[in-house]
Amino acid sequence: MKRRAFIAGLAVTPWVLAGCGAGSGNGQSTGGGQTPAPDLPQGLSRRHDFGALEGEVFYIAHPRYGSVDATLVAVEDNTRDAQLEQFALRLELPLGSDLQDAVYRVEHVRAGSFELFVQRSEEDSAAGERYVAFFSHLRD
Description:
6-stranded antiparallel beta barrel
């Protein structure tokens, strides 16, 4: 999905735009003295990078609604091989989001924008639908 189409979807909900700020991960200040984290893969790709954003809202481009809020519920260790850094992002989206397992454009106020493969989790909560994204990196 092109950035223009994503932004057009956000325009439907002005309160979302108010929270998005001006930065898109380009290293420029977003006002208020905060400097956004870089886009993937330069900086936001390791477990500790996402751990600092736990509990925050990401905006996922949605084919029907333009975008949906996705709260980063947890960053969990998922190590299966000691030579790799493996972890999972647990996201909660509103009920009725019904995203297919696919790559989506994701926006965050400080982290900028990036592509992320998300898939439906086996466990939903009463508050929303759960999704997961898995990462696997060679250890430094």
